[in-house]
Amino acid sequence: MSVTAIDVLEKQPAESIKYAIDFTNLLRDGETLSTLTSILEVGTSALTLTEKAINTVALTKRSGNVMAIGKGVEVRVAGGADGVTYRIEAIAVTSSGNTRVGDVLVKVAAT
Length: 111
Prior knowledge:
Layout: E1 8-11, E2 16-22, E3 33-42, E4 47-54, E5 59-60, E6 66-67, E7 72-79, E8 85-94, E9 99-108
Parallel strand pairs: 1-9
Antiparallel strand pairs: 2-7, 3-8, 4-7, 5-6, 8-9
């Protein structure tokens, strides 16, 4: 499966971070995410993924851009081994009936 939306999260092994995967650039005008089909770690099971949901409030990203309600998926990411990069894949159905895939790379580093 090809990667359709990609972002990078950097964390330390002991951290637990709530992260939002932004689907904005994958959606048409007026289209939102309506059903979260799955969020999973691709290839391993070293990360713990909890608190999975479509965003119900607008979120300000690190870049300062605002992610509107229904334009992203939130997930809490914990664990991982120092020096390893993981891929998380989120699949959601949109208000137009489209199925979209968003991915995030998680780089784990102790420092």
